[in-house]
Design goal:
It is built from 11 helices and 10 strands. An 8-stranded parallel β-barrel has the order 1-2-4-6-7-8-9-10, surrounded by 6 helices. It catalyses: Random endo-hydrolysis of N-acetyl-beta-D-glucosaminide (1->4)-beta-linkages in chitin and chitodextrins.
Amino acid sequence: MGSLPLLLFLLIAAVAPFSDGCGITVYWGQNGFEGTLQAACSTNDYKYVAVAFLTTFGNGQTPVLNLAGHCDPPSGTCAIFANEIRYCQSLGIKVLLSLGGAIGNYGISSTGDAQQVAAYLWSSYLSGSAGPLGNAALDGIDFDIEYPTSTLHWDDLARAIAAYSTPERKIYLSAAPQCIIPDRNLDVAIKTGLFDYVWVQFYNNPPCDYSGGAGSLIKSWNDWSSLLPAGNQLFLGLPAAPGAAGSGYIEPEKLKSEILPVIRQSANYGGVMLWNRYYDVNNNYSPQIVGDVCPPAATAAGKFEDLVISQVL
């Protein structure tokens, strides 16, 4: 009987990595043939959706939202997604606006510039006031900063956005660095510890993605797991189909048998990120892995069931 509290503690510890936000992240917005945001959320395959991308911002520029063929921001037609965002949120899915991407014109020139961009993001996307996506209040901001800029004030931008969080409402931050360490753009920002979720792009980088073999990928994962500040969740970023990236694709069965059982042991494991919804739809990828990304709590609990019962008796 005296050891029961310890066993309960171990039980809680066993399920904890999968109880706080574990799931699949998907990028949506860069292909007009990927379907609606609501359709993506209604699959119940995703825990997070990154709406991509705000491709122009900073340096005094007028911000530009690019959602490919979904809508035309200048004419206001992207406001139709406000209800779809709220629908996703009603299912417990966090919806974030993704900054940057591989093509765009963005950068932060100073601390003051970071504060101005943060103010714009708050008023236009996070506060619930009317903005390019209507009056929906997004849950946070994703940093997908993919090309070098002359100045690196991404840590200042992260701090400026995080400052809008209150005890009543948290603004979530995520980052999508390349798997090569250190990331050329986001290294300093990530080390602030402000990013709740870090979905590392383990693709288009043969030295640290699956194209170098499972061992290479797992070593890179472990390096990232050790690097992240406490409290940040680490996600395995993957292409959702062979054509989604130049390298790094993993067949679903190999992911489930070779990779997930290993990386799920990391205390800061958060799940899998997929690029992107269009490829996921066409390759039917997330439905094949969703049951293995975050084992249900009952699975972990079952490991201790007989032990707990025996101690009670």
